[in-house]
Design brief:
- By secondary structure, this protein is α+β, with helices and mostly antiparallel strands.
- It contains four helices and 18 strands.
- Helices cover about 15% and strands about 45% of the residues.
- It has a nine-stranded antiparallel beta sheet with strand order 6-2-3-4-18-17-16-10-14.
- A hairpin with a 2-residue loop joins strand 11 (about 150-155) and strand 12 (about 160-165).
- The longest helix has 12 residues, at about 10-20.
């Protein structure tokens, strides 16, 4: 038996993030809360979200359970709700029931065995920069009509995001004094597919800052928190494979 109650804002942001890389997802619910890990079909991007039970208005589960859902069907339910509301969620057999103010709606669950939960790879780097989400987004937007990739550079002087084509180029430069926190004693560079980053930055709407970690030609790790509830923040991780330059 699962009975949950969560803010619509939080549920929408979780769903928006997942929909950037997958159409189906499997949520695990246990006594500590809810978590979900998903990887896109091309194995280029991965998202991990951990929702502590304290983030819920109501949280009840009889041990560990799995909920497999079609993300588009979940988004269609969320669209019925006001952003200021909470949504009640109950697992009833092979259906998930939602209570949204005056609206009750149910959707069919998928077979959890058909969705493989990927293992999170051991991606670590001692080099990182904590940047404002708004600054990072501006750098991505400046590059979106120039190229399909963007190169990040981190050095003791700061962080750069550069993109170019035969006729145009863009560069965002964040000097050290505009970076919230950083650790880097050398210069590292790596390029990444821009499409995934643009979808991610649009979906992660409530966070103020992002922790970017990478090395030369190495996967990018982005750590973030969804800030709807400052006392029980939802922890997120976004991983992105590098785009190898010719």
């Amino acid at each position: 038996m699962i009975r949950l109650n969560l803010s619509v804002k939080n549920l929408k942001e979780i769903t928006d993030l997942l929909s950037t890389i997958v159409s189906e997802a499997k949520f695990r619910v246990d006594d500590s809360g809810m978590n979900v890990t998903a990887v896109d079909p091309a194995h280029v991007a991965m998202i991990r979200l951990e929702v502590p039970k304290e983030a819920f208005v109501e949280f009840h589960t009889d041990g560990q359970e799995e909920i497999a859902l079609d993300i588009d069907r979940l988004k269609s339910v969320i669209r019925l709700a006001s952003s200021s509301e909470n949504v009640g969620i109950t697992k009833d057999g092979e259906k998930l029931k939602f209570e949204l103010g005056t609206i009750n709606k149910s959707i069919s669950l998928l077979d959890p065995s058909t969705i493989v939960t990927p293992k999170i790879p051991n991606i670590t780097s001692e080099y990182y920069a904590v940047v404002r989400k708004s600054d990072f987004e501006r750098g991505l937007r400046a590059a979106e009509d120039i190229s399909d990739s963007i190169r990040f550079t981190l050095s003791p002087e700061g962080f750069k995001a550069y993109s170019h084509s035969e006729s145009e180029e863009s560069e965002m430069i964040l000097p050290k004094d505009m970076i919230t926190d950083m650790s880097c004693n050398t210069t590292i560079k790596s390029s990444y597919p821009l499409e995934y980053l643009l979808k991610f930055i649009k979906a992660v709407s409530s966070t103020d800052s992002l922790k970017l970690s990478f090395r030369d030609d190495y996967p990018l790790s982005v750590e973030f928190y969804l800030d709807q509830n400052p006392d029980a923040k939802i922890k997120g991780l976004f991983l992105l494979a590098p785009r190898m330059e010719q």
